[in-house]
Design goal:
This protein is α/β, with parallel strands linked by helices. The protein has helices spanning 35-50, 69-82, 96-108, 119-131, 147-155, 203-212, 225-239, 270-275, 281-290, 303-309, 324-336, 340-349, 356-362, 372-380, 390-398, 409-421, 425-437, 445-461; strands at 22-25, 54-59, 88-91, 112-115, 161-164, 170-175, 179-184, 192-194, 217-221, 246-250, 253-255, 320-322. A 3-stranded parallel beta sheet has the order 1-2-3. A 3-stranded antiparallel beta sheet has the order 4-5-8. It binds glutamic acid (GLU). Glutamic acid is lined by residues 26-28, 60, 202, 206, 218, 220, 224. Residues 21-300 form the Glutamyl/glutaminyl-tRNA synthetase class Ib catalytic domain.
Length: 466
């Protein structure tokens, strides 16, 4: 099964150099997608773009009860917002006829067999095996059922679930992230592909779709490594030898404390990061592209640079630590480098009608774009000044430099006040901040003064709201 020698394209196309790369991101629309999902989507997307291939969104909605259109729409919206646009899209729920055909083929070829054990009976078997020091692997008792025995179960009202008959051999693959990998199928139970109620588990539809869509590389989370042996055998049972795509399994993300991310995953959904946290897409993507790799994590302002930097061989095999503070740092860095035109519409949506001067002045102080609104409020007003010493405020007003206020005006002004009044430090600055902004803390005063402008500054220094 290992076929590294046959891999020829830049990133190990599944044995055929002329075959164009096709990958898929396959979320289940049973919840919001979070940073863990995004990392997998991103790896697929970057890989497709680097190879000039196709990126498919496969909606894994065979679980008709838990899947919702709302979550599906949200996934699409999130991917668009992130810039991870897909070239094709399909839903598993529209493809049950394909799964039925595969089921029939596997039954005909003897790979899929009906089992009648109840959950309790299986549980008892496993306990017994453990007590005897054996691994709790399904004993394949159902394979030796006679037609009469099956008929008897059916007559009792039992419905079969269906298992795939593994070869019992060693399955090997050259994982593009984990390197040479293998699973000894004699050590695992024949997987159940279809439940008693006729519904499909994820395993079979995924293989059927990957085959039918001619997926060349399956890039997914490490939690699917255990499915790989069975899936490779199902690929071969349905599509013939060598029909399995190349596989790449990424170690899971953990929190910065090493704990499972699932605990706070709600806050790490793309929707929450966008709507509640105000994180920029490229901050999320810059982090996720490099997390758990030997590359430094740096802010990248576009996906193109991440495409050229993609290298699966740099991915570590240990879980990658997701650090929220690191994402915030990238977010701030990106904002500091963002040009006015790129944010103009979003500033307008925040009610900020200022132009480039405002943006250039405030952006070095921003952690989130929405913070710009606080600055704008200070500029626009109305601000109720806080004045404890009216004489000092009046003196300061009289010393305000002539002409249009610039970023340098603050320095010149406070030097003049210092020279005139002898005040320094907090005693000098705080009354000015309180008069001009009505607050004890806030943005850098040189910018504030410039943006407020002479007229409003004088009004506020006189004690009137403006
Ligand atoms: N729907 C599966 C998941 O979200 C897809 C796994 C796969 O990529 O094969 O885990």
């Amino acid at each position: 099964m290992a076929k590294p020698a046959a891999f020829t394209c830049r990133s190990n196309c599944a044995g055929n150099p002329s075959m164009s790369v096709k990958v898929r991101f396959a979320p289940s629309p049973t919840g919001l997608i979070h940073v863990g999902n995004v990392r997998i989507a991103l790896m697929n997307w970057l890989f497709a773009r680097r190879e000039g291939g196709t990126f498919v969104l496969r909606v894994d909605d065979t679980d008709l009860e838990r899947s919702t259109k709302l979550f599906e729409d949200q996934i699409v919206e999130d991917l668009h917002w992130l810039g991870l646009n897909f070239d094709e899209r399909f839903n598993q729920s529209a493809r049950f006829d394909l799964y039925e055909a595969a089921r029939a083929k596997l039954v005909d070829t003897g790979f899929l067999y009906p089992c009648y054990e109840t959950e309790d009976e299986l549980d008892r078997k496993r306990k017994l095996q453990r007590a005897q020091g054996k691994p709790p692997v399904y004993d394949r008792a159902a394979l030796s059922l006679t037609d009469a025995e099956k008929a008897k179960y059916e007559a009792e009202g039992r419905k079969p679930h269906w298992r795939f008959k593994l070869s019992g051999g060693r399955i090997e693959w050259n994982d593009l992230v984990r390197g040479p990998s293998h699973i000894d199928t004699s050590s695992v139970s024949d997987p159940i592909l279809i439940r008693e109620d006729g519904s499909y588990l994820y395993t079979l539809p995924s293989v059927v779709d990957d085959l039918e869509a001619k997926i060349t590389h399956v890039i997914r989370g490490e939690d699917h490594v255990t499915n790989s042996a069975a899936q490779i055998e199902i690929f071969e049972a349905l599509g013939g030898k060598g029909s399995s795509p190349a596989l790449a399994h990424f170690p899971l993300l953990v929190g910065s404390d090493g704990e499972k991310l699932s605990k706070r995953i709600g806050g790490l959904s793309v929707k929450a990061l966008r709507e509640e946290e105000g994180i920029e897409p490229m901050a999320i993507l810059s982090l996720l592209a490099k997390l758990g790799t030997s590359d430094a994590i740096e802010a990248r302002s576009d996906l193109a640079s991440l495409v050229s930097e993609l290298d699966f061989s740099k991915v570590s095999r240990t879980p990658a630590r997701f650090d929220f503070a690191e994402m915030e740092r990238l977010n701030a860095k990106l904002l500091h480098e963002t040009g006015f035109l790129a944010v103009r519409d979003r500033l307008e949506a925040l009610g900020i009608t200022a132009g480039e001067t405002f943006w250039n002045a405030v952006r070095p102080n921003l952690n989130r774009l929405k913070d710009a609104a606080d600055w704008w409020q200070l500029v626009e007003g109305p601000v109720t000044p806080v004045i404890e010493d009216a004489d000092y405020a009046a003196k300061a007003a009289s010393l305000l430099p002539d002409g249009e206020l610039t970023r340098e005006s603050w320095g010149a002004w406070t030097s003049a006040i210092k020279a005139e009044t002898g005040r320094k430090g907090r005693e000098l600055f705080m009354p000015l901040r309180q008069a001009l902004t009505g607050q004890n803390h806030g943005p850098e005063m040189d910018v504030v003064l410039m943006l407020i402008g002479r007229e409003k500054a004088l009004t506020r220094l006189s004690g009137q709201a403006a």
